[in-house]
Amino acid sequence: MKKLMKYLSDYRKESILAPLFKLLEAFFELLVPLVMASIIDRGINVNGAGGPDTVHIWRMGLCLLALAVVGLVSSITAQFFAARAAVGFSAGLRQALFDHIQGLDFTNIDKAGTSTMITRMTSDVNQIQSGVNLVLRLFLRSPIIVFGAMIMAFTIDVKSALVFVVAIPLLAIVVFGIMVWTMPLYRKVQANLDKVLGVTRENLTGVRVIRAFHQEEVEEERFRGFTGALADSQIFVGKISAVMNPVTYVIVNGAIIALIYIGAIQVNVGNLSQGEVVAIINYMSQILVELVKLANLIITVTKALACADRVAGVFEIQNQEQASAAGPGAADALTADRNAPEVPFLQFDHVSLTYAGAGAETLHDIHFSVNKGETVGIIGGTGSGKSSLVNLIPGFYPVTDGCLRLEGRDIRQMSEEELRSLVGMVPQKAVLFKGTIRSNLQWGKPDATEEEMWQAVDTAQAREVVEGKQGRLDAEIAQNGKNLSGGQRQRLTIARALVRKPQILILDDSASALDYATDARLRTAIRQLGGGTTTFIVSQRASSIRHADKIVVLDDGEMAGIGTHDELLRNCEVYREIYFSQYPEERLKAAKAGSGNGKGAITGTGKGGAEDDGR
Q1: Which end of the chain is more exposed for a tag (fewer CB within 10 A), N or C?
Q2: CA triplet 423, 424, 425: central angle to 5 degrees?
Q3: Whole-angstrom distance between the N-terminal and C-terminal Cα of the chain?
Q4: pLDDT tens digit sequence for 283-337
Q5: Parent domain of 268
């Protein structure tokens, strides 16, 4: 919790004024029993011969009213300052937490889990806010009332006040003992809440798949299991916390019984008046009320501390330092690379990648270079590491072995802002944000002009999509682009990447929902882009990458071949298998050609790919 208190620094004034006004309220509340004693002893005058003193009763009644008004004003003022400090603190904390999560690399986000991040930004921060609010209001007030009431009781009668000396330590043992017991249990409750949020998120995002495979009952049972575990943990810790109120009531009411007994004896022998006994009992009742409040405060603070530890745990997640990641001798290598003649634009130097927690490498010994302006196709079977390879370029995942250089510079030596400004990324899953087509395109370039947007839309073959919507660029887009088809979403995400005119354009299987003709036109338009854009095209279709300057063939995380389409048909068995599986007529033609000239080599391109080659 201490690490998070810096977010309260902007609200020092409110954090001081809230407890001070609560102390003022407590001070006036402690005077009330004395005024009541005066009304009983002097105003009502139970044992006096002269009868009731009406003037004194009215005077003390007005005094009670004044104390109530001042206490009410003090309480409202304290509530205002406490709420302002708590809400401001939670807003700052939530913003800082969001900014920190946004700065984490994919490895750390995968490790922590999306559902956990969401829970800690919402439920956990709300619990901390409630804790801060109650602490500012009650943390000083309740102890002041408890010990102040005991001191005031001693000023009235020492013998009766000894009951307070016994009762208050007993109450402290109960309250703090339950707090120590329940704190780890509340952490478990929040962990179970993470799981419920996780399964809920899975079911909502995968609802179509669940229904397609008729797994509604299975998922309902799974959800009931997680919610049952959450309910059980909450009920268990709730039962422990619920013990606090009855135990404190038993102790305090036992103390009141003792006070009445001792007070009766003292009144009988003439050492105390009836009003003073009532005042002492009122002080014990005040202690009872405050301890009930303190018990609720302890429960809330216990939850807040458990949540604060979880939030602080997110801040402790740090990305691997760029400099250390590059390894020893990186600076020397960097200088050497810059001075080397004809440095490649992008170079994979024996690169390997192992995901956190994975048992084996996902990519192993990837080694090739790319010149500026080239188009590189990446193809391979499912799970061969195609997306993993292109995710290394913008630094989404750190290289675990080898080195990835951009214009001779190790990308681990480049700032995230510098590296990402050079890259336009279109991921496998097309993601659009709620807003307009214009606002989505401006993610690529915030200051993009109308002309630049339309140019990107034309290149992405999305003009018909934009012009077909009411408002055109200002047409509304639903969250995740739910009001668009898959192909429309893909074309708009490609346009978003093209708006920034990146030096490196990565299309990660981003045309899978497009028909062959649109895909061909898209590739033709991208090849005609000016500015020397280097393009990486990840695709399952051989036709999408066959005219690339280089084609990298991956097989189980390793390079099975690299070269042009014709070279790979001659030399790479994996590529031949992929190509012929998509164009079986080419296999027959190649077999006939090979049997006719007695050679197994395959040259030339076939009819199957020429229809949509994009030229």
Answers
A1: C
A2: 110
A3: 63
A4: 878 877 777 777 777 778 877 887 888 888 888 887 765 434 444 444 444 444 4
A5: 12-315
